[in-house]
Amino acid sequence: MSARIVFDLDGTLIDSAPDIHTGTARMLEEQGIAPLDLATITSFVGNGLPHLTKLVMERVGLAPERHDELTARVLDHYNAVSGELTRPYPKVVEMLRQLKGQGHLLGVCTNKPQGPAVDILKITRLGPFDCVVGGDSMPQRKPDPAPLKAAFDALGQGPMIYVGDSEVDAETADRAGVPFLLFTEGYRKSAVETLPHAASFSDFADLPGLISDQLAKS
Q1: Residue 89 DSSP label
Q2: The domain over range 17-81 is classified in CATH as 3.40.50
């Protein structure tokens, strides 16, 4: 049985935090401020670039009325380095190839802006995906379920499964009413047992089997 499988991007398919860290560090350097450490920036990932920039600004005391300006600067710097340090997580490439070979329809639903999301998928040679919904593709962003529902709608018909790594992803799947498979090695901040999920995994080699198990229950 083939399914519609949608993936989160940052912290799920790719470890992009080092490049995001560089983008924020260069923005802060322009303001004469020392960069925040990688762990802090990683903890800010998940709700989209505008929210991440807001958290950075609050942490260092930058005026909130500059938010739009500084978000644009972070995006410019991120786009300039995107792909330099970003890498797919181990076995992601093989996993996607296996699922595609089994006839599943694959999509991405991310809070990363659409353009950078498509670009990094090309740079990291992930896919091909049948749809990509970015954080600026529609008025709502995750954890609102609308973007995830739009991704599934774009994929057509079939059972639905969402794969992600974070609290935002778990809430999005829960609100959309779709099974959620949790990758435990991404940017999650809460304990695994506190997040609603159908199954969890730390090795992408295990994901095709978990998907088969989930489809057998549907």
Answers
A1: P
A2: no
**165-187 pLDDT, tens per residue?**
999 999 999 999 999 999 999 99
How do residues 74-133 score in pLDDT, each as one tens digit?
999 999 999 999 999 999 999 999 999 999 999 999 999 999 999 999 999 998 899 999
- Cβ–Cβ under 8 Å, residues 104 and 131: no
* CA–CA gap between residue 32 and residue 93 (Å, rounded): 40
- Dist. CA 99–CA 106, nearest whole Å: 8
Domain ranges of the chain: 4-15+86-217, 17-81
Instruction: Tell me the CATH class for 4-15+86-217.
Output: alpha beta
Residue 126 CA, chain-centre distance (Å), reads 13
Distance of CA 183 to the CA centre of its chain: 11
Q: Specify the residue for token string 């410019």.
A: 76
Provide the whole-model pTM: 0.93
Catalytic residue numbers, as ranges: 8
Q: Which among 77, 30, 39, 33 is positioned nearest to 58, based on CA atoms?
A: 33
Neighbours of 86 (CB within 10 A): 18
Q: Counting every residue, how long is the chain?
A: 218
